[in-house]
Amino acid sequence: MVLLLILSTITFAAKVKRSAWVKGMSFATYLEKHSVPKTILDNLDEDDSLFVSDVENSRSYYELIASTGILLQTLIPVGEELQLHLYKTHKGYKLEVIPIEYQEDTYVTLIKIESSPYGDIVKKIKNRRLANEFTRLLKYSVNFRSIKKGDHLAIVYTQKMRLGQPIGVPNIKAAMLETAGKKHYVFKHTDHKYYDKNGKVLIKKYMRKPLNRIRITSKFTNRRYHPILKKWKAHHGTDFGARRGTPILAAADGKVIFSGWKGGYGKVIKIQHKDKYVTLYAHQSRLKANVGQEVSAGQVIGFVGSTGRSTGAHLHFGLYKNGRPIDPLQMVKFSTDGLLGRAKKAFISRKVKYTKIIDELFKNNIPSKVWNTVNEIGVSPKMKNYYKNRGW
After folding, report:
1. Is 301 exposed, middle or buried (0-12, 13-18, 19+ CB in 10 A)?
2. Which helix (H) or strand (E) holds 185?
3. Do 10 and 64 form a contact (C-beta atoms < 8 A)?
4. Of 61, 168, 192, 221, which residue is the least packed, with the fewest Cβ within 10 Å?
């Protein structure tokens, strides 16, 4: 792992520190806190500047601090695929974007309900994010008020791991909630959408276009190695080309939680929507909506511009779920009510596969994976000994 390779070269007096990103703290403020010259940001291009601005509140990051208190290195995850690597050299500090090294494995959960799906997953499995995802998906097909003590749920999912800690949101492949003797299934298909057992899409897209006329100039990407620039790039949003002054529209009903300047994003408005979604509208020439204001879908909240780090007038449109950047077009683009032809045949094959797995969970009473809570520091015994032997 990158961190371990880095740590192995440091003197014994250095200590590893794990912290949570402070709400509202900018990366520039973080640099100032550690006496790192802000000029290190001057060499960033627009994409990297936006990437730096995407550091999430409460996200865990790692620092290597010398006995003198000087910051030697830091790794700050942004999204689930890439991280900021700031490190000190004899010529000063350097900043780069590198991949997050992680392992991803498949896990299962089988629970007999005692109180509620959410409460029991948190209590018995100790993975709050898994509980959030399960209830988010199943609420579209099950009336949770009908659930009774003694009902069952089953989940097949993958989880990324980094330094003994789960990172990111669990990726649920299939889930089942049994209530009143009826089994309600959810399956994730290869198109990243969730369907019921009949192939009907479950989560309806509810967001509208942020501009009346759409011209995409740059799409969302979590992790891509640029073949020309020879470095890792991420673009957590979709860019829409438009003339300066073009009205920007709220993508859905919600409440404005930020209206002002945000680093490389320039003039920005952020709106909190239902189901913990947040939209971001960047590079505006003029802001119209204020913090605390309730807005409706289609309401003008500002105007297209080129403020911040921008090479021309456009709207950078970002979408976040629980602080995690996701592709906005997944929510804005209209979807069909089901699958047809080859797509449906592929789905049926996938459904059969995961239904068999869930049946096996019940038949053999396979035990669930129990986690540390996502907010709890979890270092494996092997790594604890490693740090101790190194004097960290």
Report:
1. buried
2. strand 182-188
3. yes
4. 192
Query: Any idea what the Cα angle at residue 324 is, between residues 323 and 328, rounded to 5°?
Result: 110
Work out the number of other CB atoms within 10 angstroms of the CB of residue 366: 13
Domain 2-101 and domain 103-204+337-364 have a common topology:
yes
pTM over cut 0.90 = no
Distance CA 361, CA 120 (A): 17
Q: How many residues does the chain have?
A: 392
- For the domain covering 2-101, report its CATH number: 3.10.450.350
Domain residue ranges in the chain: 2-101, 103-204+337-364, 216-332
Give CA separation, 357 vs 108, 110, 176, 184, 297, in Å: 9, 12, 11, 15, 42
- On whether the CB atoms of residues 95 and 84 are closer than 8 A, the answer is yes
* 3-state SS, residue 310: coil
Report pLDDT for 10.
45
Structure tokens given for 3: 């961190």
Structure-block tokens of residue 134 = 């399960």
Spatial separation of the C-alpha atoms in residues 154 and 126, rounded to whole Å:
15
Per CATH, which fold does 216-332 belong to? Glucose Permease (Domain IIA) (2.70.70)
**Mean pLDDT computed over 160-183:** 86
DSSP string, 119-176: HHIIIII--HHHHHHHHHHHTTT--GGG--TT-EEEEEEEEEEETTEEEEEEEEEEEE
The hierarchical CATH code for the domain 103-204+337-364 is 3.10.450.350
Please write the tens of the pLDDT for every residue from 200-229: 888 766 789 999 988 999 888 877 766 556
